[in-house]
Amino acid sequence: MIVASILDDFSQFISNLSNVHLGPLLIGMACFIAYLSLRALAWRNILAAAFPESRVPYQQMWGAYLAAYGFNNVIPARGGDVLKLYLTKTSIPKSAYPTVGAGLLVEAIFDLCAGGVAVLFAIASGVFPSPPSWLSFDAVDFSFVVADGRRALFLLTAVAIGLLVIFSLLALRVRTFWGSVRQGFAVLEDRRTYFRRVWGIQGIGWLVRGTAFFFFLRAFGMPANVETVFLVLSANAVAAIFPFTPGGAGVVQALLLELFAGKATSATIAAYGVGVQATIAIASLGVGFLALVWVFEVRSFREVIERGRADRAAERDAERASERDADFADVSAAAATSAGSPGGTDDTLWQAPAEGRGTPPNATDDWLAEELASTQAEAEERVARRGARWRRRH
Question: Is 46 exposed, middle or buried, given 0-12, 13-18 or 19+ CB atoms closer than 10 A?
């Protein structure tokens, strides 16, 4: 069903290809790459606030951002975000995945606000359908979720189980995990810095994105003005909620048919929807792949995945070695404590009776023997517990 719908829209795009104006199309493509570059700058500033002691290079953040966006336009369920997490984490010394992941949430704050404004504008203009009617759209994304109640229940259950598994795994180190997550929100602690270095840059990028869509509309013979640009932005904002197709193509196509009804023919609307999606996918994927080769010196997405696995394995080995070193250090400290020191506590206790402040030597000797035995027993118990934990882990 999904493939048939995409192929049908693609055939209409091919049939209208001769009517596409190349000049506005190239300008729109250049504006869209500029928009992604501004987003990458805001992304870099979020991470710079989260890792103030580390150098956060813009070149690597730009390469990771464009590669991930290009990957998202050909792979469903926003698989490119995983690529962005890995490339970003490996580019920043002493960084952590929870912190970088929290940065994604900080970045999404502006998108939620700007997308909400665009949708409210479209609804207020009277051309945008109300949210309950979205479920009746003939879109592969919507129909895939709501057409079959059992499928929707399965997806919800799978998401819930996935969240529980992630939480149970992270709960083993809750304190460290949440400390890393809070670090990712560091830029929000200084509102002036956030609005100047993140929100403001994202706002400029959003205007550049609107300019790109203006030229895309002109390239495909669609009505191009402020209102229609807002309608396109609102359609893309809703599509971000349903990432079951690359770039939310199905939702965008269905909404465009509703929004531009009476303003253009269905064939023109279909050609625009598929054409813009293909243009953005080709441009972002091409530039993203060049960024991988130029910035990260990799030749394929598969090599990135292999590097990620190797990096994760090295991190696990380092964590195990650190835990073993900590266990051995604790055992050594316990042994040293249990051995005692004749010139320290013992001398003080033996000197106390001569000064008239202590207990008789025999009583002190018995008390010291009991204390040493208790300390030795506690040390042996701690060593046994740590040994049991180490055996369970390995």
Answer: buried
Res 297 pLDDT > 70: yes
Q: Are residues 276 and 378 in the same domain?
A: no
Looking from the CA of 18 toward its CB, the CA atoms found within 13 Å total: 1
Specify whether the backbone of 340 is left (phi greater than 0), alpha (psi in -120 to 50) or beta.
Answer: left
Using the 8-state DSSP alphabet, how is residue 130 labeled?
Answer: P
| Residue 71 predicted with pLDDT over 70 | yes
Residues, the chain, total?
394
- Spacing of C-alpha 253 from chain mean position: 26
Q: Output the six-digit token pair for 355.
A: 């000064």
Q: Which domain holds residue 36?
A: 2-299
Q: Identify whether 133 is part of a domain.
A: yes
d(CA 121, CA 231): 8
Distance CA 247, CA 75 (A): 8
Cβ neighbors of 382 (< 8 A, separation 6 or more) are 330, 334
CB 62 within 8 Å of CB 145: no
In a domain, 309, yes or no: no
CB atoms within 10 A of CB 363: 11
Mean pLDDT of 329-345: 55
* Contact (Cβ atoms closer than 8 angstroms) between residue 96 and residue 89: yes
Is residue 226 within 8 Å of 267, Cβ to Cβ? no
Max avg pLDDT among 46-60, 61-75, 375-389: 46-60
The percent of residues in the chain predicted with pLDDT above 90, rounded, is 22
Domain identity same for 128 and 243: yes
Q: Would 308 be classed as within a structural domain?
A: no
38 & 101 share domain: yes
Same domain, 249 and 336: no
Of 211, 77, 241, the residue nearest 254 (C-alpha): 241
With CA atoms as reference, report the closest residue to 107 among 45, 174, 29. 45
Q: Report how many domains make up the chain.
A: 2
Under 8 Å between Cβ of 42 and 205: yes
Higher-confidence position of 189 and 326: 189
Contacts (Cβ under 8 Å, ≥6 apart) of 290: none
